[in-house]
TrEMBL record:
Family annotation (Pfam families): YgjP-like (PF01863)
Superkingdom classification of source: Bacteria
Stored CDD domains: M48_yhfN_like
Name of the featured protein: YgjP-like metallopeptidase domain-containing protein
Positions of the YgjP-like metallopeptidase domain: 22-227
The organism's taxonomic lineage, starting at the top: Bacteria, Bacillati, Bacillota, Clostridia, Eubacteriales
């Protein structure tokens, strides 16, 4: 038997298996098979309510499975493509005495003394970190006019599950991959975190503030949902 419900715009469908057990158990198998083992006699309404309580965890697991399936696997050879400001740029690896990374038109040129894929990846990450910091500083300076307060500190770091975060003391931390996103998406990430200087939650007032500055912010949310997995080295 299959049941389903909707959560955060997603349809979550699952199979039910009844057995002699006291508690319910949820199992997820690739690509998106959800199975719920339930005690005999439990109503469908109770099962749906119980599974709905686990919806955030279920979606997280489904996204992790999807990430494993479509996450780009780079070999860091010339001709591979990466994202920068939402556009594809082609990697060009050359040998030279001065090690550097340069964006020349649509070519991301990495020059190093000897071919070393780990070194290429590290050089690219450092380049993206620098570009992300440049971009977010530029945008924070622009959007500061909408706020009474300013960020205390602005840092770029490794963040596996967030594009950015704002601390209680208004330190804003940005994922170094942010410069892979489109300009307007970076605007959204910056404004989102700056709004957390006013509202520390995701309340209606928070989203109203985001919308008052960026009326089309949901388009950026959708872009991140569709392309976030490609923002990787």
């Amino acid at each position: 038997m299959k049941l389903h419900f909707f959560y955060a715009g997603n349809k979550i469908e699952f199979n039910i298996i009844y057995s002699k057990r006291k508690t319910m158990k949820i199992a997820i198998a690739p690509p998106h098979e959800i199975t719920v083992a339930a005690p005999i006699g439990v109503s469908e309404a109770i099962i749906i309510n119980c599974v709905k309580e686990k919806a955030p965890w279920i979606l997280k697991k489904l996204y992790m499975i999807k990430d494993m399936e479509i996450k780009p696997k780079h070999e860091f050879n010339s001709g591979e493509t990466f994202l920068y400001l939402g556009k594809k740029v082609e990697l060009k690896v050359t040998l030279g005495n001065i090690e550097k990374v340069e964006l020349i038109k649509d070519k991301l040129e990495v020059t190093l003394k000897t071919l070393d894929k780990d070194k290429i990846r590290n050089m690219l990450e450092l380049w993206y970190r620098e570009k992300t910091l440049e971009k977010v500083l530029e945008k924070i300076k622009y959007y500061n006019k909408y706020f009474k307060e300013s960020p205390r500190n602005i840092k770029v770091k490794e963040q596996k599950t967030r594009w950015a975060s704002c601390t209680f003391y208004n330190d804003i931390l940005f994922n170094w991959r942010c410069s892979m996103a489109k300009e307007e998406v970076i605007d959204y990430i910056v404004v989102h975190e700056m709004c957390h200087m006013v509202h520390k939650d995701h309340s209606k007032n928070f989203w109203n503030l985001v919308g008052s500055i960026l009326p089309d912010y949901k388009l950026s949310q959708q872009w991140l949902k569709e392309n976030g997995i490609r923002m990787e080295l």
